[in-house]
Amino acid sequence: MNKSHYLQSHWRFHSIGALFFLMGVAVFVQLVRIQLSPQADVFRKQGDLYAGTWRTVYPPRGQIYDRWGNLLAGNKIVYQIGVELNHVTDPEGIAFAMMAVLDEDYENMLAIASQEPSPTAVFAVLTDFVPPEKVLQLQQLAQQVGQPDDANPSIRSLEGLVYIPHLQRSYPERDLAANVLGFVSMEGRGYFGVEEKYNQLLAGAPEEVWVPQDPYQVATITDIPPGASLILTIDREIQSMVEEILDQAVEENGAEAGTIAIMDPNNGEILAMATTPRLDLNEYWKYSQIIEGSTPFNPAVSKAYEPGSVFKIFTMAAALDAGAVEPDTPFLDTGQIEIGGAIIRNWNGGAWGPQDMVTCLQYSLNVCLAWVAQQLGPKDFYAYMLDFGFGHTTGVDIAGEVTGRLKTPGDPDWYPADLGTNSFGQGVSVTPTQMLMAASALANEGRMMTPHILRALVDNGTQYETPPQLSKVVLSAETARTITLMLARSLENEASAALVPGYRLAGKTGTAEIPTPYGYTSSATNASFVGWGPVDDPQFIVYVWFEKPTSSPWGSEVAAPVFRDVVERLVMYLNIPPDNPQSASLGR
Amino acid sequence: MIGLFSLALVMVGLVAGIYLNVTARAATAGRKIQEMQTQILQLQRTNADLETQLALLTSVRSMEQRAVALGYRPVDPGQVLYLPVPGYAGRQEAVLASPPGPAVASAPDLPPEFTETLVDWLQDLILSQPVPGVGRGGAP
Hints:
The complex is a heterodimer of chains A (588) and B (140). Chain A is an alpha+beta fold and 588 residues long. In chain A, strands 2, 3, 4, 5, 9, 17 and 18 form a 7-stranded mixed β-sheet that branches. A 5-stranded antiparallel β-sheet of chain A has the order 11-10-22-21-20, sandwiched between helices. Chain A is elongated and about 150 Å long. Chain B is built from 4 helices and no strands. Chains A and B meet through strand 3, strand 5, helix 9, strand 17 and strand 18 of A and helix 1 of B.
């Protein structure tokens, strides 16, 4: 290489080097200029738009179990079907496929799939809550497109169709305990029953989460804990048994509706609560077809009515506790009594002659019980009735509880005559749950327990038990035992249809006329029975109520046999051996 | 001169290569985490769905139908024989999780060697050196 050639090459190298250096400097200057320019913020914001997305994460809704861990309310996979608008090539094909597989409206689907994509609209929802088998059909359809065996040549492409899985509430037992559970709407909100009462706990807390596109930042995605799960006091087998008996009895007796509720008087746990009509919770949108008019979803807590003669047990218990009467206090029934200017007569209008307090209950004598209330006096009578919980909610943890009505002296619509009528359950309205709670005082040595449906709560891997709650000590233990024995004797003397061979039970029938705007002018009745047992150590209270039975108006003929049917099977589920095995075998 | 320049170039290239390698591995790990998070969500959904399907198969009505198909029938109350068994506590109610226990401080996931900074380490080292005349017990 000669010198001139070397100098020429050297000059070229330096020139190229200088050029690259200047380019580098220019790039650097431009970088600094953009960073410091007024548009820098705009560019940063544009960049942030693509750095990730905000997503609302809804935690899986907590599950609901019965007391033995059987699932009553769970979750199942369903799909949201939508279109990514910038990938859609054949909107007509998509609309046709949605119509063919999901029976969707073609024009509506076409309108959605034909939308022009824009920076703010890149995705559109076609439908939601689609079951997996339908999604599989759509996917198979998409695979067949363009194949020689394509059954739908009108579909050119299903490109852009996306399937997004999510969870939906599901009730594997369908209508079992429907009135207790309630349901969850498509928006994820609980309605009625436990689903509404514990909606916040079950739903958990949805969180807005930033999902970055930058893989270095993925660790910042937080873990959203699921909603709390609930274990109820309900026993699935007992609930099923009670519903079966109730449905059959409502039909046989031609009743408008019926309710049977069972509670453990020792702790207030509700073992079963059955009502008619019931809804398959997986098809809750049929609500208005099945539960018509003003009928509440769960009459056991939401429907107040005049109980009639079952109420007499509380009048008698109050009088015994206050010392106003004793079991053998004599009473001469002349067939009528005047209280507050109103004449009160017996259910058959007859005079029953010499009686004592046991036979007053046995024959359900209105005149006698009105006299007992008179002996007690309005002040003590209403004080006891308020203590029993009438006129206010029990606090049961089921949505929609109503208070009923107990007029008391001082209320503008209370009259002295009300003392007489209230004593035998007229002019007072109660719910079945109130009756259960009040009866628990009689069955549990005077200690009235708050009814409850939640046995335990499982949250974040820990199970929290619900302790039983004592509502009030209403009576002395001695009074409670006395009234229980009086009711047992009255059932035995009467050879009631409620008796179960081998088991000593206490209970009382009720037949209440249904008031109309013009008074007690209707022949329709509320037939009911409340009972508990075994008398020596009560383990259950059963309340039976039929609305407007047509087979017979009497609680003794409609409700008492149903009480027996329930108890006969209930003692087997609860493993309660007979008090008297010999009579049990003879009775059968 | 050329040698030094080449050395600097090699060093820069080496550092750039190591940096690229580390960042690429971090990015891959990040993507794997994202995939696993998606997989966890899918598995949670599948678990919930399977539990519900199982409950459907073992629902009261299904079990009754299966029992009847197998030739069983509801027991008559008169046929039940009660046999007291001393010490038998009966059927146990559902326990789906452990009861709340005393609060226990959770152990750190990683030992300090993996989490402390160089400054923390130096600080600990300096502070852990015994100072003469301080902290020595005993009678004078």
